[in-house]
Design goal:
With 170 residues, this protein is of the alpha+beta class. Helix content is 37%, strand content 25%. It contains 5 helices and 9 strands, in the order ββαβββαββαβααβ. The chain has helices spanning 20-27, 66-87, 115-131, 142-151, 155-160; strands at 2-5, 10-13, 35-40, 43-45, 57-62, 92-99, 102-108, 140-141, 168-169.
Length: 170
């Protein structure tokens, strides 16, 4: 099937069940790594998506695109929380709001958080990034999400789920 690449205005042939990531690597061999996501007919998609069809318009987006920047920030936020939890299991991480070109976060820990702690978190984040693991999105029932958040001591999230008006959450 054929699709149109919005970035270059060219029409290319794609294979059945080919992911956006595979297309990206094939078309942009030397700089595929700078793209963070894609829009299929202006709808945001992850690079693992195969959700497109004949004659769709695909635009690969990088950090200079507002959606690409949001993908970048959210991904780093996930990596940050994962690094904190892997090193200090009982640490409470809050990402409160954006601040200039960064994020304002708070760490609640049984000890005073020092530069040594922050360096360990930074190093763990780099280790996670270097491992190049995929981030998988799960869709769960609200009850299952509540169970997971309770087990992890995230009672603020359990409380927020009281106001969730859908059957599933991702």
């Amino acid at each position: 099937m054929k699709i149109k690449l919005a970035n270059t205005d060219e029409v290319i042939e794609v294979y059945e069940n080919e992911t956006l990531y595979r297309i990206l690597k094939r078309v942009y061999k030397n700089d595929y790594f700078k793209y963070l996501g894609a829009k299929v007919n202006n709808k945001l998609k992850g690079l693992c998506s195969k959700d497109f069809k004949e004659n769709d318009r695909i635009e690969f987006i990088d950090i200079t695109n507002p959606d690409g920047h949001r993908i970048y920030v959210r991904t780093l936020s996930l990596i940050y929380v994962k690094a904190c939890k892997e090193i200090y299991n009982d640490i409470d991480v809050s990402i409160n709001h954006s601040l200039n070109k960064g994020l304002y976060t708070e760490l609640q820990y049984k000890h005073l958080v020092t530069k040594k702690h922050l360096d360990a978190i930074k190093n763990k984040m780099q280790e996670i990034i270097d491992a190049k693991k995929n981030i998988t999105t799960y869709f769960l029932s609200v009850d299952k999400a509540r169970e997971i958040f309770s087990a992890q001591g995230m009672m603020d999230k359990v409380e927020m789920l009281k106001y969730w008006n859908k059957d599933t959450i991702r």
